Amino acid sequence: MNDKKEITWGIIVTVLIVYFAASPFLPAPYNLFSKDVVGWTFMSIGVFFVFLGSFGLVRMPDLYCRMQTATKVTTLGALSMLLGVSVLDSSGVFVLKAILIGIFLLLTAPISASVLIRAAHDKGVKLTDKTKFDRYEESKVGEQS
Amino acid sequence: MGVWSDILFAILLSAIILGLYRLIKGPTNADRMVALDILTTSTVVLIAFLAWYFGRIIYLDIALVYAALSFIAVIVLGRYLEGGV
């Protein structure tokens, strides 16, 4: 029973490796490294992560957890989406502007998240009940005493 | 092109609708600001997608300006919430 499972997985992995190695020499729709396949893959990953960010925004129990999804997952999705779009439409100006937007998002998303979260914490927004420790609160107490 | 781009467009729109839910319902003002942040990033992604879909490079300029304005809006709202305007 176990042998049979291992042999099946070995065959599947071998076929995948051979296909991956031979794919640069295959014609267009079966070529894994063609422009379309790479661009669509990056675009799908980006849209998936943007959706996950919004889903976490609805599902998370706490302002701080929501901020985590907003600042990490959505930035990753936006960067992947911009990469996929600029791979698909490979004119020079488009790629340049997409890179500019990506750098801007990468620089500004953590700053705005940090400002927001510090303001909310100073204002006294409640943490969820499952929180184990709050290092920012401890550091503020240490400074005062 | 074709069906798959329509599916991606629908998923992006549903992500924006989920963000709008949190923007309307959010218990505190900080929740609404987080929702605003995530909505602007999703909209930048949507504008980039539309720029590729219609083949117009000029749309990416709009996305860049929108990202800059949303950053400034979030910073200003954060300062306002902090009480140190």
Short description:
By secondary structure, chain A is mainly α. Chain A is built from five helices and no strands. By secondary structure, chain B is mainly α.
List the helices and strands and how they pair.
The complex is a heterodimer of chains A (145) and B (85).
Chain A: H1 2-22, H2 35-59, H3 63-88, H4 92-123, H5 135-144
Chain B: H1 3-25, H2 29-54, H3 58-82
Helix pairs in contact in B: 1-2, 2-3
Walk me through what this model shows.
Chain A has five helices and no strands. Chain A is an all-alpha fold and 145 residues long. Chain A has two domains: 33 residues; 94 residues. Chain A is flat and about 65 Å long. With 85 residues, chain B is mainly alpha-helical. Chain B has one domain: Orthogonal Bundle (Helix Hairpins). Helices cover 87% and strands 0% of the residues of chain B. In chain B, helix 1 runs antiparallel to helix 2. At the A-B interface, helix 2, helix 3 and helix 4 of A face helix 1, helix 2 and helix 3 of B.
